[in-house]
Amino acid sequence: MMEFVLFLGVCFVLGGLAVASNPSPYYGVVGLVVAAIAGCGWLVSLGVSFVSLVLVMVYLGGMLVVFVYSVSLAADPYPEAWTDWGVVGYGFGLGLVVMIGLIVGGVPGQLVDSGTVNSGGLLSVRSDFSGVAVLYSEGAGLLLVGGWGLLLTLFVVLE
């Protein structure tokens, strides 16, 4: 399991580097999807499956709408690919900065198994099982405001 979580972490960092190092939205969206799915898989491995599901739906749904909008504005006939020297150099520089930051921050020494959100002792109910109930009971107003904002954004984009 530890190897799988480490693999998801590497995919998350590589997806973020793919988004940051590529000026073309066509190739950047691939990195966005890889980073979002790897991050949500990481959250599932920690035991917060509801939060992961909400993040996939909200984050990928919203960001892919922004991607479609930016692609329609920047209709590039010859977008820069990941194999162009400028993009490779920029990605290598970002990867070097991330690696130095991880080493200086002491992250390799902290790769140990920590707890999850599972309750301990007499309480055997996982903490994220109440997420749907809390979302619809206490967050109903925010859901309505968010839905209204998405509807307004749809009309602005279509105009």
General description of the model:
The chain folds into two domains: 113 residues; 32 residues. The chain is built from six helices and no strands. The longest helix has 25 residues. The chain starts with a helix and ends with a helix.
Q: Radius of gyration over alpha carbons?
A: 19 Å
Taking pLDDT < 50 over at least 5 consecutive residues as the criterion, the unreliable ranges are none
- Morphology call: flat
Cα(first) to Cα(last) distance is 49 Å
Per DSSP, the total helix count is 6
The portion of residues forming beta strands comes to under 5%
Residues in helix, %: over 70%
String of helices and strands: HHHHHH
Number of DSSP-assigned strands: 0
Biggest sheet statistics: none
Q: How much is the average pLDDT?
A: 75
Structural class computed from helices and strand pairing? mainly alpha
Kindly give the count of domains.
Answer: 2
Structure characteristics:
flat; mainly alpha; single chain; 159 residues; 0% strand; 6 helices; 2 domains
Sum this structure up briefly.
This protein is mainly α and 159 residues long.
Question: Could you outline the blueprint of secondary structure elements for this entry?
Answer:
Elements: H1 2-21, H2 25-46, H3 49-73, H4 85-105, H5 131-137, H6 140-158
Helix pairs in contact: 1-2, 1-4, 2-3
